[in-house]
Amino acid sequence: MRSHRALTVALVSTGLLLSGVAAGPPAHAAGCRPSAVPDDIDRDGRSDLVVGDPYADRNEGRVEVVYNDGRRAMIRRSQLPGDPGDASFFGSAVALGDFTGDGCLDLAVGSPSDGYVEPEDADDGGGDPGRPAEPKVFVLRGTSTGITTSDPVVVLDPEMGEYSGFGNDLAVLQPYPDSRAQLVVGMPSRDGGRGGVAFFAFDDDGQPGEPVLVDRDTPGVDGSATPDSMFGASLATIGHSVLVGADGTAVSGRRRAGSVTMLTNTDAAPQTFKGVSYSQDSAGVSGGAETNDRFGYSVAAHGGWVAVGVPEENLGEDVDAGAVQLFRRNAGAGTLTPVQMVSQETAGVPGGSEDYDRFGSSVTVGRGLQRAGVLALAVAAENEEDDPDVPDTGAWTVLDLPTLRGSRYSLSSPGVPGADARGAGAFMHVAVLGGPQAATAERRDALVVALPSRSRGRVLVSPPWLGSWESFQSGDYPTSAEFGAAVS
Ligand SMILES: [Ca+2]
Ligand SMILES: [Ca+2]
Ligand SMILES: [Ca+2]
Ligand SMILES: [Ca+2]
Q: Ligand 2 center to residue 180 CA distance, Å?
C-alpha cells in the first residue's frame, strides 16, 4: 500500500464539544432535516465522528462511527455484500456527503483491495491462481438516526485493471449546501502511476451514473500525464474546485518534485473540468522544485485558502524538514495566487527545522481553531520529536491566518491525552470537524488529530481554544490495528 496518508480516518465530528442548534421537529421518515453543523449524521445539531481502521479484522477493515451522544456503531466489511477476499482494507478512506439526495448524510468508505485473493504457490501443490482485487467504494446510506448497512451502494473502479489505488483517497464535491454531492475518488496508481480522479454523480435511488475520469491528458487540463506522478494521491475540495496532489510529478526532470492541479467545473457543465497546475517552479511559489520535495503530498482548502504540504523540502542543511505553501484561491478564474511558504523556520512559527521532521505531512484549514471566527492552518510534522532519545513522536502546529500566530502540540504537551513513544507520529494526520455554521464571526470548528500507528491508535478532537482534548480509541481493542488511519 502506498502510504497511510491515503488511509483516511473518517472523523465524523464529535459534537460532544460542538454544541449546536436546538433540536427541531423530528425528521421525516423520507429524509432528514437540515443541520446547522456540517458533519451531523443523525441531525441532532452536533457533529459526529467517523474513524477508519483498515487493518482491523485481519486486514478486512472496518469503520467506527462515534455519534456525539456517545452511541458508537462499528461497521465491518463482512457485514456488507460480496466476498471481501484476503485483505480488502475497507476503511482506508472515509467521506460524508448526501450522495443520494434525500437530505441525509451518507458515508462513503473505500475498500481498495476488495475481493483480492492471493495466488497459491504452485510448489505447495495448490496452484490456485487467486483473484484480482475489485477496488470499490461502498456508500452507506444515512437515515435520520444514523448510518445503515442495509442496501449499500457499490461504486466500482471504472477500469478494474491493474491496481489503481481506487478507494485510498476520497473527497466530496458539493458547491452549495443544498446541492447533491459528487463523490471524488483518487486513482493515483492508475496507468503506471499517471493517476487519475474519478467523479461519480448519483440518481435518486442512489445509483452512480457513468463516471467522469480526469487526468492530466484530459482536454482543458494543462500539462500531460506522466508515469509515477501519482495524480490523485491527495485530494481536497472547495466550491467548484478539487485540488489534486501529484507529489510524484517530475518537474524539469527532477523526480518527485511534485505538483498540484486545481480542477474546476461550472454549474452549467458539472462534469467538465478545467485544470491549472502548480509546482515549486511556478511564478511566486517559494522553494524551487527539487528532486524529492513531494510538493502536493498533502492538500487542504477552506475559506479561500489552499495549503499544499511539501514534507520533504530541505531547509538549509536540514534534510526533509518540510514546509507548507499557502495560496489564495481566485474562485471565478479557477486559479491560485501564491502567498507564502510556511515552515518551522518562519518567524513566529513555534519549533525549529530538523532533519526528517516532515512538517507538512498532513495539513488542514478550519475556522475558529484558536479564536472564534478566525481561519487557521493546522500542520502535522509526523517525524518531529521533543526528545532526541524518543524519535518520531510527531507534533502538530496550529497557526491563525494570515498572521501565523499559534501553538505547537505533541503527546507530551499539557492536557494532551496519551504519552510520547517512539514512532507515535507515523502517518499522523489532521482534519477539521465543522462547528455550528450560523455566524461566521463566531464559528469554532474543532481540530482532529489522528495517530493511528501505535499499537492502540488514538484520535484526538479539540477546539484548542478549549484547552482540552477528547481522546477516542477503538471500541474493539485489540483487534483494532490502525484506528485512525482515516478521518474526515
Ligand atoms: Ca450528531
Ligand atoms: Ca443521503
Ligand atoms: Ca524545493
Ligand atoms: Ca522541528
A: 9
